[in-house]
Amino acid sequence: MKGAAKQAKGAIKETVGKVTGDSKTEAEGTADKAEGKVQNTVGGIKDKAREVLNK
Predict the structure, then answer these.
(1) What angle do CA 15, 36, 44 make, to 5 degrees?
(2) Can you spell out the DSSP letters for the chain?
(3) Which residues, 6+ apart, have CB-to-CB distance to 3 below 8 Å?
(4) CB–CB of 2/41 below 8 Å?
């Protein structure tokens, strides 16, 4: 959940940066999106590991 929220926040921030011409905000949004993707991936791996261990 945290990863998905971070991705959404990043997408909004990136779009605002593009619309306003603020390259710093755009870059921060891109970074937030990437961080959110990593969080989702790590969370998925942890979930899969728990699933395998609990069988």
Answers:
(1) 145
(2) -HHHHHHHHHHHHHHHHHHHT-HHHHHHHHHHHHHHHHHHHHHHHHHHHHHHHT-
(3) 36, 37, 38, 39, 40, 41, 42, 43
(4) no
Q: Look up residue 14 and give its two tokens.
A: 């990136």
Longest dimension (CA), the chain: 52
The string of pLDDT tens digits covering residues 1-55 is 788 999 999 999 999 999 999 999 999 999 999 999 999 999 999 999 998 998 7
The encoded tokens of residue 44 equal: 């998925």
- 14 within 8 A of 35, measured Cβ to Cβ: no
